[in-house]
Structures are given as C-alpha cells and as structure tokens.
C-alpha cells in the first residue's frame, strides 16, 4: 500500500500486488469490516502468466481513515491484507482566514469598480450640463 497524493478533496491510497494465480479478488475494507468501493482498479497478466493487480481508493476526512486492502484467491483460500491509517493533519484544509481574506478582496474590488463607474457617470453628467450651458 502507498499514499499516492491528494485528489478530489481527499487522499488517494494505492494497493498493488503481483504473483497471483488465478486472478485474485481485491477488496477495500473499513476498520468495522464494511466493504468500500474502489476509485480505480486494474488487473493484468504478466509475462510469467501470473496476475498483477492495482487498485486505489480516495479517503476523505469525514470517511473512515483506517482502511485495509484485502487481496484474496478464493480457489486456494489464500489472502493478503494490508492496513493503513491516515490521521487528520494529512487532510487538506481551507483556513477560515483565507476564506475571509478572499471575501474581503472580492467585496473591495467590487466597491472600487462601483466607485469608478459612479465617478465616470458623474463626470459625463457634468460634461453634459456644461455643454448645455454653453449652448444657451
């Protein structure tokens, strides 16, 4: 098992194994024993005729962070299991200060744009009044 990086708001965990015959079954399982869906899965037959498998799952902060990858051969009743726990500090977080700063910047840019528009409008209005007075 390996941690493959951040993806889709969570952490992608990869499970790889080779040297299986016949083709193995691959399952993700939570700490409570509940089976979880894979994000991706591929199986191939190597040059030696043995099967290789690679599967991944996305673990989010709110999901079960303690998971196992179970690879088993149902014909020979053989299985391998590997478990990983990913603690909270590894999950990407959005700082409340960054959100507040972005909101303030958007409001500030909008205010500056509105002010510039109103000054331009006032300038055109004054120009029209000046031309109107000159013509009379």
Task: Summarize it.
The chain crosses the membrane at residues 97-119. The chain has one helix at 96-135; strands spanning 2-7, 10-20, 25-30, 35-36, 40-45, 51-59, 66-73, 78-85.
- Rg calculated over all Cα atoms: 30 Å
**Widest sheet, order of strands:** 1-2-6-5
Overall geometry comes to: rod-shaped
The count of β-strands is: 8
Order of helices and strands: EEEEEEEEH
Q: Residue ranges: pLDDT <50 for 5 or more in a row?
A: none
Approximately what portion of the residues adopt beta-strand conformation?
35-45%
Distance between the termini: 87 Å
> How many strands, which pairing sense, and closed or not: the largest β-sheet?
4 strands, antiparallel
The helix fraction, in percent, is 25-40%
So how many helices? 1
* Arithmetic mean pLDDT: 87
GO molecular function, one term: signaling receptor binding
Protein name: Ig-like domain-containing protein
Subcellular location: Membrane
Keywords: Immunoglobulin domain, Membrane, Transmembrane, Transmembrane helix
Keyword list:
136 residues; four-stranded antiparallel β-sheet; alpha+beta; 41% strand; transmembrane helix; 1 helix
Descriptive account of the structure:
With 136 residues, the protein is of the alpha+beta class. It has one helix and eight strands; from the N terminus they run ββββββββα. The strands form two sheets. It has a four-stranded antiparallel β-sheet with strand order 1-2-6-5, with no helix packed on it. The protein has a four-stranded antiparallel β-sheet with strand order 4-3-7-8, with no helix packed on it. A hairpin with a 5-residue loop joins strand 5 (40-45) and strand 6 (51-59). The longest helix is centred in the last third of the chain and has 40 residues, at 96-135. The N and C termini lie far apart (87 Å). The model has no long low-confidence stretch (mean pLDDT 87).
